[in-house]
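Progress report, Aim 2. The chain analyzed during this reporting quarter is listed below.
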Amino acid sequence: MTDKIHDLGAGFWNIRGSFRIGGVLNIGTQCSLIQLNSGKFIFLDSYSLTGDVRDEVMALTNNGQDVEAVLNVHPFHTVHCAQMAKDFPQATFYGSSRHHKKVPEVKWSDDLVESDAVAKRYPELKFSMSQGIHYISPNEMIHAGSLLAYHPASQSLHVDDTFMSPPMKLLEAILPELILHPTTKKALKNEPDAGKQYCDWASTLAHEWRDVHNFCAAHSYLVTFNDGEFEVALLKAIDKARAKLEKS
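Predicted structure tokens for the chain:
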């Protein structure tokens, strides 16, 4: 799998990268580059840029000088943060409390990435925190919770782990599908209605962000939805899992 950068229009680029488990199995990863109304840029997530992808990013961003911030939206995606901070030393780095602990060499902003302060700083994006499940699970193997970021101008949704596309790419004639992260049930908070909270949150998101056209998920391929298909696919995934998640 070669790193690629996809221009999704309206100032949004999705970068598909490599991430190998045990140095062998490549499950992929991502980051996204967004041009703000000011002309400056931000990244969603960190990734060590190399080769042609790095050259293109540097050409877009005035050799990196116009990158003002990096928003690390998944608490368990920390591998590339230190390199990203070296590549863009002038940028403000936002992360979860786990980022602060796991990568202390990065000078993190006091404002956590999921804070209202950060959301207000970037009105070009809409953010949503997964509900009913742990954002930072006490079990290091459970990564279902995350902060989702939607860019309405390009109709692009950047999501790590919480929602995924199936591992095998479906035929173009078939409605694109979504699946929930396999650890979602284990990620539920110890609350009586945690499963309902999660399903209600995801269903509301499907309606509010029904115009998603580009689905950028960390460990799968870039999925393109036609009008209304994202809403249908996410609601279908929720309905399929609801009984299991809401079971007390």
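The chain has a mean pLDDT of 90. The CA atoms of residues 156 and 214 lie 5 Å apart. These observations will guide the mutagenesis work planned for the next reporting period.
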